[in-house]
Amino acid sequence: MEIKKAEFIKSAVYANEYPKFNNFTEFSFIGRSNVGKSSLINSLTKRKNLARTSKTPGRTQLINYFLINDKIHFVDLPGYGFAKVPQAVKKNWGKIIEDYLTSDRKKIVFLLLDLRRIPSNEDMEMLKWLEHFEIEYYIIFTKSDKLSNNEKFKQLKEIKKKLVFDNEDVFFYSSLKNTGREELLKFIEEKTQNYE
């Protein structure tokens, strides 16, 4: 899949604010704060500032919609986890994410996990949650450029003590080097065709 056109459509909080294009498949990116959701969207679209990135965890506080090639949406969801924000705000984010994920939109969710970290309790809760609501999801390990092959092998061994998966069933991505970009775009294209 070649991305020829990518544009920010809108930010939303409530279901009635989501874009009206219900026939579009939505590819949603979720993960803990600072896992690299916005950077990944920028890398996929080859647009440096399409999705706002920040070194400050918790910058994405709304659901951000991007229209890709006039036929699908990328959706950047608020991060969960260690963001330095008041508890009330965190609670509100949880509600925003829950409302989106349980909506009846055609969506495929990518759960982003930092390859350098063992999945947190919040990551595991999100996985259980996605399975409970029977939401189609796939795991992307981000920041894969930060580890050598040897370190990656050891780290995956540790991660697999907590999470069961086969390496060929997950994606490894580096937004810095665009590693994994072609594989992910091919996958998105196949899924889009299946949903048409």
UniProtKB/TrEMBL annotation:
One function term, GO molecular function aspect: metal ion binding
Gene Ontology biological process terms from the UniProt entry: division septum assembly
NCBIfam families in the record: GTPase_YsxC (TIGR03598)
CC annotations in GO: cytosol
Family, as annotated: Belongs to the TRAFAC class TrmE-Era-EngA-EngB-Septin-like GTPase superfamily. EngB GTPase family.
Protein name per the record: Probable GTP-binding protein EngB
Coiled coil start-end: none
Originating species: Leptotrichia rugosa
Occurrences of domain EngB-type G (ranges): 23-194
Cofactor(s) needed by this chain: Mg(2+)
Keywords, ordered alphabetically: Cell cycle, Cell division, GTP-binding, Magnesium, Metal-binding, Nucleotide-binding, Septation
PANTHER family the record matches: ENGB-TYPE G DOMAIN-CONTAINING PROTEIN, MSS1/TRME-RELATED GTP-BINDING PROTEIN
Pfam families to which the protein is assigned, alphabetical: MMR_HSR1
Function description: Necessary for normal cell division and for the maintenance of normal septation.
Entry-linked InterPro entries: G_ENGB_dom (IPR030393), GTP-bd (IPR006073), GTP-bd_ribosome_bio_YsxC (IPR019987), P-loop_NTPase (IPR027417)
